[in-house]
Amino acid sequence: MIREHTDTGRATATDTDANVALVRRAYRAFHDRDVPALLATLDPGVEWVHPDGMADYGLGGTKHGHAGVRDFLSRVPAVLGGMRLEPQEFVAAADRVVVFGVRQVTSVRGTTRTLPFIHSWTLRDGTAVRMEDVFDTVVFHRLIES
After folding, report:
1. What are the tens digits of pLDDT across the range 29-43?
2. HEC-encoded secondary structure of the chain
3. What is the pLDDT of residues 78-124, one digit of tens each?
């Protein structure tokens, strides 16, 4: 589902559709574990933001640029046994796409849970300049430690 908010007057339906298509490509690349394809959707100076509460696992805070995203992705296997993102709703307005979804997360010990997420993507000139992941870090910590 795409909801377009036109009260800003800054983006056309075509711009909004292109932004949603770009974000969908990013999720496809993540699903396929295709890091070069994921990076192709991201601006070289992208801000990759995760809750500070994940800092104990090397996954919190803001990572900068493609190198920061690569570093983040390289840390995930040390903390998780697996993760599959399932975007469910895309809400687009101007240069922003907000995605509501769930992720199937498996701990390194094999416990799997379904956890909700909200991703806020900011796009400019055909690439994502910021991606912010919002989720319950307490529940995530419990899963990691299970």
Report:
1. 999 999 999 999 999
2. CEEECCCCCCCCHHHHHHHHHHHHHHHHHHHCCCHHHHHHCEEEEEEEEECHHHHHHCCCEEEEHHHHHHHHHHHHHHHEEEEEEEEEEEEEECCEEEEEEEEEEEECCCCEEEEEEEEEEEEECCEEEEEEEECCHHHHHHHHHC
3. 999 999 999 999 999 999 999 999 999 999 999 999 999 999 999 99
Question: Hey, what are 17's tokens?
Answer: 């559709």
Distance CA 91, CA 33 (A): 25
